[in-house]
Records
---
Amino acid sequence: MFSLIVKNAANKTLNLTDNPNYFTVAEGFNSLTANVNTASSATGHGSIFNSTKLANRNITLQIILRGDIETSRIALYEFFSPLSKLMFFYQNQHRRVHIGGYVESFECNPNVPNETANISVICNEPFLLDDNTDNLSLSYVKDYFKFPCSVPEEGVPFSELKNSSETVIVNKGEHETGCIITLYAKGGISAPIRITNLLNGQYFELKTDMQVEDIIVINTNSGHKSAKLFRGGIETNLFSQMSDSSTWLQLCSGENILSVSHNLSMLSVDISNVAEYIGV
């Protein structure tokens, strides 16, 4: 069994599965086929690999109308009008995911037995995104004391000073994905500032200094890549401050080891990522 809810641009939601007015068959939440681009080899057999990418995801719905058929059909227009943007929320026993898309078509023949709406939605960002964001903080102080708690007679540590600037972050998805890195300067930080994924050797480096209370936000997710400095309420684009050999750091599927080039007593680092799935 699965649950499918749609949300329109006005943040109004409609449950398509737990709803007496509709019987819904949904397709397109399965795995996708990649487009592999190659060029013929002039010196040997086979071909030379150039690139690979996923095409758009096409989600199709067959919705049999029940109850007051006229009312049920009109209610769908509010969510599936062609050209409109929407968000699907899908849940089964193992995964809770969401994906956005644009309505391509809505076909429905009124006044026929078992009146059915046939709907096509194109998702230009094809991965299914986990509903939960994984957050990790690299801090000089590691918290221990949380409520509720029971304190033994010998006492418990409230926190611990950390000397290591390395940490493990897990990407739960089946695909390499970007992340959002937030840097907060507790003191003066000298350039360069580098964050390295020791698993794949990728690193992101900025040739900029940080003043006390500066915040830098780095987004390495595909389609949303950015690096911004926030200082005294002013936002500055840091694209020009990226090192030439710097890459938009990606997290491999599974465990990743991230390292920061500066002492954590002067710099706080928060990392968040959303797992990307190819199917449910």
---
Amino acid sequence: MRHRKSGRKLGRTASHRKATLSALSVSLIRHKKIRTTTAKAKEARMVVEKLITRAKNAVLKETDGKAKDVHARREVFAFLRDREAVTTLFNEIAAKVATRPGGYTRVVKLGQRLGDGAEVSVLELVDYNTGQEKAAAKPKAKAATAGRKRGPKKGKPETSKKAKEAATEETSEKKSPSEPAAKESDSK
């Protein structure tokens, strides 16, 4: 029985699990949004929330006029092992979540992966709503293309009589406006 045992093993040894969670954390800090299995996302969420809280508290202490909290940066670096990620975490993310009391991440389930049927989710930082901005931009793009007429489908030639008649009418209409102009120039 696993009473009072928290966390998921993720089918890995302890060192491999720590490396996986570190890599997921670095990716989330860099890209603000990652796509992974639901189990890994939920486990990485617990780790990232603690890192962000650590960074937020260190930045709040620094704003009181004290020197940089180097100890907090070193502890976060000991887990992440990526200088860019630590810099981004302390400079960008901690400043942005300074007023938020917790809940810095969100797990959105996407369904099952086609290859192996694993449950897939998106783990994202709440204050960086990258998914909602893209979703709002898509309807505008569709509205712009809705007015255009589409040509014939590729691969299937149009063989209907109505289509041929429409094509001949279009070509005759194109010639007719230019013909009177030509006649007027000839009569002068």
---
Amino acid sequence: MTLPKLLFELSGSTRLEILHALETAPLTFTKIVDRMKITSSEASRQIERLSGMNLIEKRATGNYAITPLGVLMLSFLPGIDFVHKNHDFFLAHDTAPIPHELVMRFGDLSGATFIKGTIEAMNFMQERLRNVERYHCGMVDGLIDSIIPMVVERAKSGVTFRAILPETYREKISMVMDGYRTADATMPPHIIEIRTLPIVPICGAVTDRGGGFKLPFTDGSMDHSTMVVGDDPLFCRWCRDLYTHYWARADPI
């Protein structure tokens, strides 16, 4: 099996449909014909090609089933499909700051949506901030002063906040937080934790309500006009893992 040959076999829509159908359960030849709405000769040809690549096999019962290799190959396709469907976005943005292991999990982003517009993205983030109930982990390349009182108020109600900011904001953040803690002794200790990086390469957040991120353009400047967001479990786990990656590399204040 060569890679070009494998990719060629996976490029056929009928063959992909057969693989996905067998991923659910083994099927007889007749059921494959009926499910795919193709002729018997066409089904035989497609089955032979998939069998030749060891992606499916015929069992002793006469049913056709997907092989473990076939299942593994299919697992890579959602990420490729996501990038392909959003190729204009990825042509204009730099994915280098995303850890390789998370690039390999781009399929987890399949349920994401794209928010267009700087104001729209800001409104979305502020709405998430207002509705968060348990935790909010954010990573931003600048400090928005108007959000600080909202964060403090939500923290007083028990919401845990984690933030990653550029190193240039370290002194200002220390003074602001010291001021709030001095003025209000009821603020729970460590309810707000802040760390810094020399440069914040990706903007994003993950909360108990969902997640989202922004990527830089290919020239390195952050694109604040497009935000990728989602709230399904796979997307949120991907965002948490991205945040954890940078949180472990940031310096505490």
---
Amino acid sequence: MKKRKKKYIDTRDWPEYNNELIMRGYFYINPEFLLKWNDELKQMNAGKVGEPYFYPESMVRFLAVLHCKGNDYRALEGMMEALSENHKFQFPVISYSQICRRINALDIDFKILEEDMRDYLEVGVDGSGEKSTKRGGWMREKWKVKKGWIKVVIMGCKNKKNKKYVIDIRVGTENLNERKIARDMIIKNHNNIKKFDADGLHDCKATFNLCEKYNIPTAIKIRKNASVTTRKSSRRKEEVKIFKGMPYEEWTREKRYGNRWPITEGIFSGSKRVFGEYVSATKKRNMYHEVKLKFWAYNLLQGIT
């Protein structure tokens, strides 16, 4: 007899969500960099050797977000030209080649927000794939050509204000070792980790031992064939006993395993819906940078509401 699925109850605050979507549009086309153009350039060129900067970093970040939305560099130059012509003070228009260079050299970082630095956060780690080209699926199916994926591994979190964002990220080929990367992220951010959530891929002694070292509670799905006689990891042995000692549904409630979804799969889903799941760059380094830009832009979106 099939189990009856629970009826989904939508508890979303629709007026609030509607306002969030409206604010996204405001964020995309708000050229606030024009208000601080001269002051920012003066600060950027202070003590600089060689040719000075002509375009502020805030403008490049503005264009980087629009690029993540699918606008190519020539289209971005056209947007800046139209903006300059219609603004009360015309400003020099950056060329598409300069836009490309500045965006690919943009220094972006992923870290715990200052407002959350004193808190302990529930974090989750997961990996997903980004397409290296828009036509990759068709090429594989039609011409039997293997077009590799770009693999991205993120550590996401949710703070007291229910804001979900990425605090750490790694990008590479599809052979990226997700387990090792997750452990590196734990080491880097352990001072702010309250609980670590992950899927069954991370059910290994090394990860459990690392969490035991930093006294971090875990909600890691245990493999069905896991043995309770696990050696060299007392922490994993204990977790296996807990997992096998109760029904799976009860284990998920006990461990609050469902909290993993919004801070991992939820972030992947949101980023791909807003910015797409393929990159337009052709060089490997620029491909990886473009993937990071998307999650950086997603973080910015979380901060406008």
